[in-house]
Amino acid sequence: MRKFLIAALLLAVGAISVLAQDQKNELAGTIGRTIISDQTTPDTSTPFNTVHFGHGTSFNVNYGRRLRSYRWGDLSVEVPVIFNPDEDLNYGTNQIPKEYSSYFITPAARVTFIPNLAISPWLSFGGGIGIFHASSELLYFGSNNGDRSKVTAAIQGGIGFDVRLPKIERLKFRFEARDDWSGGPPLNIDTGRSRQHNYYVGAGVVFRF
């Protein structure tokens, strides 16, 4: 058993060394905001019948791996995970939760154009799931007795660019904008929409290994 563990450890170290030499992998982290359009409900008898969404501070952690390199660019796969821990809500009556959190996990293909330049633009497209979890409290007072959790399919599209940092080969600066098109969160009311755009805009760093 001990010999097996030593052999496995040596193989793991060797694999990591090879990956580090190739630098085909990357781990990125960005911070930004989630932007969602206001939604007006069909119920015109309710005063101030528009749901307003706050611009929640959000985070994206992303693992990527380069599959192929061409003269014009690179083809990679990536797994962006966007987390919005606190999306504040506002509405005219005490029917909706005060806030909710969301996760979007959307494996995707990414094409990076001219990666050897100082600034490299890229496009991303994929799909996965969105997970919403509403607050246990209603907007103004009282407990939220409605459905609080919801899982929905999500389609992701993204654009951005990576900027090479001088004299730091393994690090890049990243600016990105992504749209997770998904079902709506559990709001306890009918907004007249079955799906919504969850726009994420953020910036951060990319570590290549």
Structure report:
The protein has one helix spanning 2-22; strands at residues 25-35, 39-40, 50-53, 57-69, 73-90, 99-105, 108-113, 119-134, 149-165, 168-183, 195-208. It has one domain: Beta Barrel (Porin), CATH 2.40.160.20. A hairpin with a 5-residue loop joins strand 7 (108-113) and strand 8 (119-134). Strands 1, 2, 3, 4, 5, 6, 7, 8, 9, 10 and 11 form an eleven-stranded antiparallel sheet that branches. Mean pLDDT is 91; it is low at 1-5 and 7-21. Helix content is 10%, strand content 59%. The protein has one helix and eleven strands. The protein is mainly β and 209 residues long. The radius of gyration is 21 Å and the shape is elongated.
List keywords for this structure.
209 residues, mainly beta, Porin, 11-stranded antiparallel β-sheet, 1 helix, 10% helix, disordered N terminus
Task: Map the helices and strands.
Blueprint: H1 2-22, E1 25-35, E2 39-40, E3 50-53, E4 57-69, E5 73-90, E6 99-105, E7 108-113, E8 119-134, E9 149-165, E10 168-183, E11 195-208
Antiparallel strand pairs: 1-4, 1-11, 2-3, 3-5, 4-5, 5-6, 5-7, 6-8, 7-8, 8-9, 9-10, 10-11
How many strands in all? 11
* SSE order, one letter for each helix or strand: HEEEEEEEEEEE
Tell me the β content. over 45%
CATH architecture: Beta Barrel
Major sheet details: 11 strands, antiparallel
Structural domain tally: 1
Give the oligomer, counting copies of the same chain as homo and different chains as hetero.
Answer: single chain
Query: Unreliable stretches, pLDDT < 50, 5 or more residues?
Result: 1-5, 7-21
Report the span from N to C terminus: 31 Å
Helix content: 10-25%
Give the overall average pLDDT.
Answer: 91
CATH class: Mainly Beta
- Reported by name, the CATH topology is Porin
> Which structural class best describes the helix and strand composition?
mainly beta
